[in-house]
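Handout, tutorial session.
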Amino acid sequence: MDQLRAWTPDQWPLAEGWQEAVADFLASPQGRQLAGFLRERIAAGAVIYPPQPLRALSLTPLASVHAVILGQDPYHGPGQAEGLAFSVAEGVKLPPSLKNIFQELGCQPASGSLVDWARHGVLLLNACLTVEQGQPASHAKKGWEALTDRLLALVAATATPCVYLLWGAHAQAKAPLIEATARSHGREVLVLQANHPSPLSARRPPVPFLGCGHFAQAREWLAQRGVTGVFPVDSRLL
């Protein structure tokens, strides 16, 4: 079973542009607190996902980021989480939220893995980067948020043009950080907000996820600025 078996962040690969922010976090009080917490939980036999918490940073170099999708925490079922927000490993049944994402995109995927998106400039970042089996949000407020807020600020200060797709109240709470940072650094951003793609909220007001048109808006806005190929789809159309 793929799970986190040791706290060894020095062995986790990072694409170009992320190293300083990650190193600074790991040396910070929040980083040391998180390390202690995870070592304790691993020693206690907790089953923790995903096996590589920083995988999103290994697949998408900072200079390549042109879109950000922010999730809350990894999937907590066996074999689901692969270190990318909303993505599941190949061969894993699609969770309901991911089904709705593909429905909004207008495709029937061959796989639920979004690795190809990550390789085409979409940073698939969860606010919290680990979770225990069967216990959603079990690692919330243990330190990860200090790192992911730092990463969001780094992207907002650096990436341009960049689209931020914020689905649900948890993700939308990051809009002020993103907008203020981008504005102060003269970066061109588009912040799109809608309900979470979960079946519980995907069709509800005030901004239902299904029918929000975010993917079309993002592609058009980026294309007008010379960026194409974001959100690639290798599947048959619905």
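The second record follows below. Compare its token runs with those of the first.
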Amino acid sequence: MFEVQCAKAVMEYYNKNWHLIRDEWVIGMTYMTGNFMNKTNNRLESFNGKLKSVISCFSTLENFVEKLFIVLKCIRLERDKNAVKLVQKHPIQMSQTPELHKYYDLLTPYAYNFLKKQFEYDEESITKNTTENTCSCIFYNSMRLPCHHIFKVRKQSLTPLFDPDLCEKRWTRNYYYKTQRVFQNVEVAVSDSDTTVTTLYRKKKKVPTTHEKFRKATLIGAKISELISQASNVHFYRKIEQLECIYNNWLKGHEVSIQVLGNYEIRKTV
């Protein structure tokens, strides 16, 4: 009926630009493509609000870029704080159900809260396409976590309710620790116990600045100059020639190795 009443040009435009990508904008279809139960653009609007609070409407391009990096830095620090909190904080009361306890150790708190509701769901119905590992319901296809239908089938078939393969890898704690910036130079060891969470810090090697490199090279150069100035004329000119050779090769991007022969006889190899 819609096609009959709609203008031909409109239908051609719709079929060409929108119909083929309907999975990306039709709400009912996006749930089946792993949208993680997200049907709004609240995250984008939140970021836009933070930009507006820092950047005025008529800012110059230079000022905009400067403030943009400030906002990004603040957002990253907030994410780092939440990541550290996830490792350090632990609930006082844990579920007495062994399977839920194992799922808590496996998943992030955000994913665990979704799974816990499905695990404790009281509805007895089962969809016709539900198996022990997959389901055709909206929750499973959207979140990539086991739904109450899967748990029901597993209970009926006496299959263990805990199975790490039922959960998408992105929801696991190990994946979270590997992908968060604050843990890039930190080794996080989490045991199966509900009380032991250990964080082992690795000392980050500082990258010297250009000024620091120049200062260190200057100090070594001063020591070499003092040593050469005290040499006899024969050794002085030979050492100057060797230094010039090293400089010229470094200038060309070559590496230079020096073999010590003793008795002030130095042979240079390029």
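Points raised in discussion: Strands lie at 186-190, 197-201, 257-260, 266-269.
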